[in-house]
Design a protein that fits this description.
The complex is a heterodimer of chains A (507) and B (157). In chain A, strand 3 and strand 4 form a beta hairpin. The longest helix of chain A has 83 residues. Chain A is α+β, with helices and mostly antiparallel strands and 507 residues long. By secondary structure, chain B is α/β, with parallel strands linked by helices. Chain B has 5 helices and 5 strands. Chain B is globular. The two termini of chain B are 23 Å apart. The chains are: A alpha+beta (507), B alpha/beta (157). Chains A and B meet through helix 4 and helix 5 of A and helix 1 of B.
């Protein structure tokens, strides 16, 4: 099936469907992801708000506590920080004399009451201070009015405060807490620094927007809390959505491809069948044309002697004097007609009979066909030895060869007529199909006449020239070859003669 | 131009057909000169005065040609084409004379340039008709040369 040049565009439509499906799936996934994260963040947000409420209260509480207590004296950071790690988050200190046994009982000091009365409403919490054992403390400083002195009245144990609040939520919240002063931030708290602790989480490097920032402003600095949501994990929902929509896409895509493939298959089949049909129609038309031509020629040629017979009979009626001569002609014409009818019948039999084939050696068939001319002195028939074995109806092939040999002898003016029967391996298109030939040194044929001589009862010469014939031999031969699915063609030789080539199998 | 003894050139491969035709024409008192060629090559040799007809004094340009279409080798259409494409021959009238009644054949011959088309008759009555037509045609084409009254009618055979 050659000649189908139109390319069929494959899978354009399904590809589009799948592409759209994938895009839609991604969009669904995004939506589901956002929804899922919002759920996560809501939890995070709730917890952090709760922590802030506590923290707000604590800072408030402490400032209030501080506000009711005051100490005298210049601040010095105590040498022994272990003292600062009291169970409470606020450590009061007596700045002027830390070793005073009565320090706790601040109300004993009448002067304190005086200070309190004149002290500012809110003492301020100084810049945090990180002790060598990694505890962050924030001095609480009070100003005494009309004095340049500042007095540390205690410390807030920031580490403790923050630990108390954040450690229970170590899995839910990660924090970075910096003290910011003069645009300089110092980390002051790291949640659970012991890697062996079950609640330990490595410091996150979150950069996502799932953070919460809170700043506590004090007089000359601020504490900045950044809380991260470490459990920003994508839940199952987005994945289900993604898989579901991808699955649906795959299904739709598969169906589309199936439909499209079916379509293409059907179109291809339709095209092939149409092509076949056209081909068959063409062949039918050609064979109809052949039949038409054949009937036309045959009836025309059959009619010719019949008309002659009638005319002679007519003449005889008019003038019976030339009886014997006229009857001779009528006899000759009826013989000719008989010959024509026999040739037609033979042709018809060859066209219709079952072509039963058997393997046969071409050399044998050729020898049989040439046997009648064996001992003719003016004839030189060469048959190539070892001609290949072919599947054929050897009786009909012999008949074809007889016709070709007879033609080669008939249309030949030479004193010594040479005929060569052989096989060439040079089939123009199929090198493994043997091409047989019958070559003569005869009168040759003009290219324009080649088509004519295959037509039944067509001759190129007047019977006076090359003897009487019906012009059916080559038609018969060609029909035999075609019944073997072979081809027959004729080429003129250089400088003289003709070569008839034929094959005996489909090419 | 057709001269006194301008013959009818009959191109016919069948000897029987030719004999019947001449006998029928003679029987119908048409005794114009006739030249018989049995195929196209012979006819062209005659028309061009070549081959066997070189230096033949009886090789005279015909008044018209009666042409059988079904001829071996060069068929009637090819002969017509040849004559119509030859400057020295293209004026010669051609009558196609054939068994074929196939309309396609008729059309093809007219296209090739034959002047008229006659079917070969099946009986003597038909030949009487043909004889009449040919006689008229022959006189017409010889009269054109202005020699109608001086024609010597003789029996060609």
């Amino acid at each position: 099936m050659h000649g189908i040049s139109e390319t069929i565009q494959a899978h354009k439509y399904p590809t589009l469907i799948i592409a759209i499906g994938v895009l839609v799936s991604i969009a669904f996934f995004q939506i589901a992801l956002r929804y899922d994260l919002r759920q996560d963040n809501q939890k995070f947000h709730d917890i952090i708000q709760q922590i802030y409420r506590t923290l707000d209260a604590k800072f408030q509480l402490h400032t209030e506590q501080i506000g009711t207590i005051a100490f005298f004296g210049q601040h010095t950071i105590p040498e022994d920080f272990n003292d600062l790690l009291a169970p409470t988050d606020f450590i009061r200190i007596a700045t002027h004399d830390i070793s005073d046994p009565d320090i706790d009982n601040i109300t004993q000091y009448p002067e304190l009451s005086k200070v309190l009365a004149t002290a500012p409403e809110h003492p301020f919490i100084a810049h945090p201070y990180i002790t060598p054992n990694n505890t962050t403390i924030m001095p609480v400083i009070a100003h005494i009015p009309n004095s340049k002195n500042k007095y540390v009245i205690g410390y807030l144990n920031l580490t403790k405060i923050l630990e108390q609040e954040f450690t229970p939520y170590a899995n839910a919240i990660h924090v970075k807490i910096n003290a910011v002063s003069n645009n300089k931030s110092t980390p002051i708290f790291r949640q659970i620094t012991d890697p062996n602790s079950p609640a330990y989480l490595p410091e996150t490097t979150h950069t996502s927007n799932m953070t919460h920032k809170r700043t506590y402003n004090f007089d000359d600095h601020s504490i900045e809390i950044r809380a991260y949501n470490p459990s920003v994990t994508v839940g199952v929902l987005p994945w289900i959505v993604l898989l579901g929509s991808l699955g649906a896409t795959a299904l739709v895509g598969y169906l589309a491809i199936r439909i499209s493939t079916e379509n293409i298959k059907i179109r291809r089949i339709v095209k092939l069948q149409t092509h076949d049909l056209l081909e068959q129609t063409k062949q039918l038309q050609a064979s109809n044309q052949d039949l038409d031509d054949f009937i036309h020629i045959a009836s025309h040629d059959l009619k010719e002697p019949l008309r002659g017979i009638r005319n002679y009979a007519d003449m005889l009626q008019d003038d019976p004097s030339d009886l014997s001569n006229t009857l001779k002609k009528v006899y000759a014409l009826s013989t000719r007609m008989d010959g024509l009818i026999n040739a037609l019948m033979e042709y018809s039999i060859i066209a219709r009979e079952p072509m039963i084939r058997a393997p046969a050696l071409m050399s044998d068939i050729a020898r049989e066909a040439a046997r009648p001319y064996k001992d003719k002195p003016d004839l030189n028939i060469t048959i190539h030895p070892n001609l290949p074995r072919v599947e054929c109806n050897s009786m009909r092939v012999r008949q074809a060869l007889e016709n070709l040999i007879s033609n080669a002898i008939r249309y030949n003016d030479n004193k010594i007529k040479t005929i060569e029967i052989g096989c060439t391996k040079t089939h123009p298109k199929h090198p493994n199909i043997p091409v047989f030939f019958v070559r003569d040194n005869g009168i040759g044929i003009h290219k324009d006449d080649i088509e004519t001589i295959f037509k039944i009862f067509r001759r190129l010469h007047h019977p006076d020239k090359y003897g009487h014939s019906f012009g059916a031999g080559l038609t018969q031969t060609s029909r035999i070859i075609h019944r073997h699915n072979g081809n027959i063609w004729i080429e003129p030789n250089e400088p003289q003669g003709t070569t008839v080539y034929f094959t005996l199998q489909r090419s | 131009m057709a001269s006194l003894s301008s013959p009818i050139l009959i191109i016919e491969d069948s000897a029987e057909d030719y004999e019947i035709l001449t006998r029928a024409l003679r029987k119908n008192d048409l005794s114009v000169p006739m030249k018989h060629c049995y195929d196209g090559f012979d006819a062209i040799d005659y028309l061009k005065g070549k081959g066997a007809y070189q230096n033949d004094p009886e090789c005279v340009r015909p008044a018209f040609i009666l042409l059988d279409l079904n001829l071996p080798g060069m068929d009637g259409l090819k002969i017509t084409n040849y004559i119509r494409n030859d400057d020295s021959l293209k004026d010669i009238p051609i009558i196609a004379f054939t068994t074929s009644r196939n309309p396609m054949d008729v059309e093809a011959t007219y296209k090739a340039g034959v002047n008229t088309y006659l079917s070969k008759p099946d009986d003597m009555e038909g030949y009487a008709n043909i004889a009449h037509i040919l006689r008229t045609f022959w006189f017409e084409h010889t009269q054109q040369a202005g020699n109608a009254w001086q024609i010597t009618i003789y029996n060609h055979s």
